[in-house]
Design a protein that fits this description.
Blueprint lengths: L4 H41 L4 H39 L4 H28 L2 H28 L6
Helix pairs in contact: 1-2, 2-3
Length: about 160
């Protein structure tokens, strides 16, 4: 089958359309992984004992189904939102309400896991984690400041 200009245009349109829909969903997934990564980084800063690592893994395992359930509900809702945005430019407010509710549940579940793991730490480990967290926050603030300074309009 020969590809003429019309078929090539159609193919490019389909590829771009799929890419535009997939991008917001992938960006949201990456945000999730980034949060999980920071908890992991902070827990490494605590230098958990083997027993603490076992207990932390048990906590995470016990909560895995909760996270999986929430994400399995969020994913199709986000896809619907993206579909509506890219087809009509608007979104059904009930979808946003459902997503907000699930995100609230997700944040509560994350908080519960963090608090359970935090309770495993002794005071020296908690101080170490707090110190690393402060350093990360300062680094992020510095990066944001640099980014903003690079994107300011030059004075005339």
């Amino acid at each position: 089958m020969m590809l003429d200009k019309r078929n090539i245009g159609l193919l490019i349109g389909i590829v771009l359309g799929v890419g535009l829909i997939a991008f917001p969903v992938r960006a949201q997934q990456m945000q999730h992984h980034g949060r999980r990564g920071s908890l992991s980084l902070l827990m490494r800063a605590a230098q958990l004992t083997p027993d603490q690592k076992t207990q932390a893994r048990s906590i995470l395992q016990a909560n895995r189904s909760t996270f999986r359930d929430i994400f399995s509900q969020l994913s199709p809702l986000r896809q619907k939102v993206n579909g509506q945005l890219f087809s009509t430019g608007t979104v059904d407010p009930t979808l946003l309400s459902q997503i907000n509710s699930l995100q609230g549940q997700l944040e509560q579940a994350r908080l519960n896991v963090f608090q359970q793991v935090w309770q495993l730490l002794n005071s020296a480990q908690q101080s170490q984690v707090a110190s690393v967290y402060s350093q990360l926050q300062a680094s992020n603030a510095q990066r944001r400041s640099l980014w903003q300074s690079l994107h300011q309009t030059p004075a005339r």
